[in-house]
Structure formats: structure tokens, C-alpha cells
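Reopening closed ticket. The problem is back. First fold of the pair:
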Amino acid sequence: MDLDAASPPVLFQTVDVLGRRVDAVGEIGKTGLFYVLDRDNGKLIRKSNDVTSINMPGHADHDWAGGTTWSPMSFDSSLGYVIVTATRHLKPEPRRHGLAELEREWRVIYSSVSAINVATGAIVWQDEFEGGLVGGTTSTAGGVTFVGEGNGYFDALDTKTGVRLWRFQTGAGVNAPPVVFALNGDEYVAVASGGNEQLGTPTGDSLFAFRLSGK
């Protein structure tokens, strides 16, 4: 089983069981569990429920493409929520010629976006999507989280509730993490839409930028 921790960790402050503020590092991987560690000594503070199974029917598959594989997560410091994507249901398919020599290939059937309270490890809300969400999430200080879907949609979610606020069809799989930046006093979010042959998502060659402030 290929269960290495491939997604990038996130740094934040949390409160441990004794009420002391702790500089922490969080990591979620292919097991579907979010681990909170003390940054100074590496000791485990807490871990979350399994984001691939809570509140949803079906089953979770843990393999090289299961759980949270390469997807980056985001952190909202005002809420104390980390927002993660995860693959919930995979379907094995025959390996196609010319692709990486992996043990087997998968088609992603369902994925989820989950908000985890880093102070308790509880999953606050969760929503299910068809297809893959391997691009991960990006959250803004304004309470919006962006996520790209393998089917080409680019979505904005309410970070506090998970409600879907907006979506845009890019024409190819959004398998890259969104990037937020400021330019001439306006805030923008940009994302690449290129797809992925190995994951079977529509391919393309586009970069989209959307203005979040101003007219």
C-alpha cells in the first residue's frame, strides 16, 4: 500500500487539551485522517475523524490515489478550520499504454470537501462532489474557499458552512490549486485548467483569473 504523506503540511496555532496555545503543524494523507502535531517536538496533539467516511454513504478506498493524495489544504485562522479535499470512491481500471508504470489505475467516482476544527479534530461540515478534487483548496480572509473539479468546474464555497456560492466551467479538468493575489488594489483568484490524462479528466491549456474585489 502506497500510504506516504504526499500532500503539503500547513502551519497554524491551536489549543491543546490543557488550554495552552501551541504552534502546530497539520498533515492529512491517504488514510483520510488529519493529524495535528506540536511543531517543537513532533508529538501528536490530536487527529480527526476519517474524512472519507463521515456522514456519507458508500465506502472509502485507501491506495495511492485514495484519501488526500497530493492535494494542498487551506486554513482559515478566524474560524480555526482547515479545509481539505479527499477521494472517497475509486474504480479500478486497466492500465493504458504509455502512462506511468503504476500498479493499477483508478477512475475517481466521488470526492469530498471537508472543514475540520483544528482545536477539536471534529469535522464541521462536508460536501460530496462527483469526480476528482486533486487540486486542493485555497481559502481567503473574506470567508470564501475555492476548489477545482476534475470535470472542469471551478467553485467558490462559504468557508463557514460549505454552501456552494458560485461555479464556472473552464472546459478542462481543474487539477491545480487556486492562487489568490492582489494587483493595483484589487484581489484576484487564478487557476490553471489543463486536465490530467492519467486521472481521465478533460485536457486543455488555459489559465483563468477572476477579480474578487472592485467592479
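Second fold of the pair, where the issue appears:
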Amino acid sequence: MVHLQKQEMLARKTPLRHVPVQDGLNHFTNHASGILGGMTEAVFRKQAIAVLNAKGIKYSRADEQELTDVFKSMDYDDSGRLSLGEWAGGMTVFFRGSREDCVHAVFEALDADHNGTLSRQELREYLKPFVKAMVPEEAAALRPVLLKKATDDIFDEMDHFRQVDECITSEEMILWMQDGNNIIDRLVKVIDPLVYKIWLEQKTKTSTWSSFVSGSVVDGHAIHHETHLTDDMASAHRNSVFGGAGHQGH
């Protein structure tokens, strides 16, 4: 959750907030996508500065140094490299745009084969860092199961036209969003009950869950503060990806 809190704070002041999301993600897709092992901090800083210069946006030395914090806020696994899902989803928090702008920009970044649609695997890559951030460390072993469940549920909901080739379009994403859905709220609804259900199934099989019990369950009821976003964090992400009004006000 620390990463999401940091993003919310940085998004309010970084000069990246003046960059249109489509232009920003297109630049990173063209200049930093597909790097073996993920995007390093050096590459991120270089390309972020290049975007600011290309758009004629002024920035200070402090702003330039703060790009390190922006990078770290998106590095959910603290690996020192950003996966496609980490930077494609994360950068929409920092760039400016409506929710439709964000949907189209993220969609194009995730569409690795450039066929105009997203597969389950491509959607899973996007959801992965969000699931990692929302599942408490004590339940880290559940993340693959939760990621698959969340991906399948959200993909099936978005696949409005139920195409034979199992893919979703940006238009289907927007229709899903216009029905009142957004990624963050939907993930919370999938993750909270499933974490508790799996815990119930596992607690009779092993004693290694004692720390998870003491930290997450009291009197047989799941405590949701570990997986739920705070109102401010949820707002930042709803406004940047598949929900809200984006950063038009920055």
C-alpha cells in the first residue's frame, strides 16, 4: 500500500501531470517498451525528461530528482525494474487525461502484438501490480490464484460481445466502465472474499497461517484494511484508469 500512497502524493506535484496521457504512454512504448528484464530507473528518468522536453514543459532540478521517487512508487516488487504492467498502469496516475484517454492509452501500451485487442494474458500483465499492491504480504502465496481469478472475472465482464477469439477491445473496456465499473473497486470485491475463503480452507492444513490469522482475521471475520485502498488512493487510481475524470484539472 505504501507504493499507492506515494503515487497519490507525487501525482499532485510532478510536472508529468501536464503531459497528455496518450503522448506520454506512446513515448514510453516507442522508446522503452520491450526492454529485457524491464525498464530500469536510468531509462525511466531519461525518457521522462525527454517527454517533458518534447512537450515544452518546464521542470526544476528538484522535479528531475523526484523522478526517482516516481519510479520507485511504481516498482511494486522493489526489483529496480518496471514491468509493462507496472509502468503502463502507473504512468496513467501521473499523466493528464480523461478516463477514455487513459483507457485507450493503456490499451495500446498493453497490446503487445498490436492487433487492436487484448488477450487474457495481456490484461493479466496489467492487473498484476495492482493485485500485488492490494494483497498483504502475509498472503503473498495467494497472489497467483487471486490474479487468475481477478483476470478471468474482469476479462469475462469486459468481453461484452463474447467474441469467439476471446479478446476485448478498448470500446468494450469503455462500455464496462460506463456501466459503473472500475478496476480498483472490482479487484477489491474479488480479492477480499477470496483471501478469506482460501484462508479458511488452508487453516486446518497448516499452522504457518498463524501470522496471517493474527494480522487479518478477528473472531472469524476478515479485516479488510490490508487489501482495501484508502479513499484518497482509490480516488487517484479510479481517476486515472477506467474510472473518474483523469487529471484534467492539473
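Update: turned out to be a display glitch only; the data is intact. Residues 207-230, 242-246 have pLDDT under 50 and may be disordered. The two ends are 24 Å apart (CA to CA). Please close again.
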